[in-house]
Amino acid sequence: MWREIRVLRSHPPGGAGKGDRKRVFGSALVQAEQLLTAAGAAGYASWPILLFYGLSRAGRTIAAADNDSYRLNRHGIRALDLDQRPPLPGAGAAIWALTCGEAR
């Protein structure tokens, strides 16, 4: 699954195709992969922390592709008016697979 997600680094969706947004998208995507992969190999005491930060980085990736104010400066992820935005193609399926353990 990560192979398909990595392709997004060279062809970012939405507004993440150029400039600073592309840099944020690419770096957050790499960090999300590393943290979520580490969570899959970690023990019970530490995997929740790695999962939290991995999902946080995945959220920053999605924000860079979709959100005009993509520079997130708080801890964690907060979504406003989530039902008002059209879904990013493929992003929802990727996040679902990660949270359901298919990335392990």
Q: TL;DR?
A:
The protein has 104 residues and is mainly alpha-helical. The protein has helices at 2-10, 19-41, 47-66, 91-99.
What layout of secondary structure does this protein have?
Elements: H1 2-10, H2 19-41, H3 47-66, H4 91-99
Helix pairs in contact: 1-2, 2-3
Q: DSSP strand (E) fraction?
A: under 5%
Unreliable residue stretches: 100-104
Distance between the termini: 10 Å
Q: Can you tell me the overall shape? A: flat
Record field, number of beta strands: 0
- Bin the helical content: 55-70%
Structural class: mainly alpha
Number of helices: 4
The topology string of helices and strands comes to HHHH
Q: Tell me about the biggest sheet?
A: none
Rg over CA atoms: 13 Å
Give the overall pLDDT as a whole number.
Answer: 76
Any overview of this molecule?
- The chain is an all-alpha fold.
- Helix content is 59%, strand content 0%.
- It is built from 4 helices and no strands.
- The radius of gyration is 13 Å and the shape is flat.
- The C terminus is likely disordered.
